[in-house]
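Need a sequence for this fold. Nothing fancy.
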């Protein structure tokens, strides 16, 4: 299944209605669709995921870059209408600590119109539940490695030095392979441990 986006605009917010799935193969296509449908100086962008069936770590990386781009220029970026599997992945990966998430694009638009910058309040409006999505296991470990690196840079606002970057990628990959080989628990536990191991190994490498 491919990914598509249909667009509609309110008075102050551009809403992209995403349909299909975002995986390793079409993550770049998703990025192109967002860029083609929104202006470079778009003041407020909300992506509605209510018709999205799946998103991989590669898709999360695209969202991280969008969040960083909008955040650094003081603009609004958020997500709404997350299906349970997508919501569960974003909770486990720590993504919900970075991006505003709303129940619906109507609520997101209202918050944007009010110029609300309270991410905690937006997240509190979501009832997060554990979700089970076996397809994540088919993600390439490399996607999780790059996600961990980009998430760290997004949260800290700093770039990892080039001399540490390749070492980080190599050691995180080794760590993830060890985790993968060692895991004998449920798929839910498998998913949580992979993301956690990536973040721990990254902090070890850069000395945090």
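Here you go.
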């Amino acid at each position: 299944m491919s990914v598509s986006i249909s667009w509609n605009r309110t008075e102050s917010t551009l809403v992209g209605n995403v349909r299909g799935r975002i995986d390793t193969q079409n993550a770049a296509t998703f990025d192109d669709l967002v860029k083609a449908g929104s202006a470079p100086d778009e003041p407020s962008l909300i992506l509605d995921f209510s018709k999205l069936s799946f998103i991989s770590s590669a898709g999360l990386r695209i969202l991280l870059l969008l969040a960083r781009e909008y955040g650094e220029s003081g603009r609004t970026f958020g997500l709404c209408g997350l299906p349970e599997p997508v919501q569960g992945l974003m909770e486990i990966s720590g993504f919900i600590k970075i991006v505003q998430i709303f129940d619906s694009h109507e609520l997101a638009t209202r918050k944007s119109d009010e110029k609300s910058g309270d991410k905690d309040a937006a997240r509190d409006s979501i009832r997060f539940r554990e979700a089970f999505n076996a397809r994540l296991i088919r993600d390439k470990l490399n996607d999780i490695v790059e996600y961990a690196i980009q998430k760290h840079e997004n949260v800290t606002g700093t770039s990892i030095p080039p001399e540490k970057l390749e070492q980080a990628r190599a050691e995180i990959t080794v760590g993830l392979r060890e985790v993968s080989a060692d895991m004998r628990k449920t798929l839910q536990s498998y998913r949580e441990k992979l993301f956690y191991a990536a973040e721990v190994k990254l902090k070890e490498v850069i000395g945090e």
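For context: The first helix runs from residue 27 to 37.
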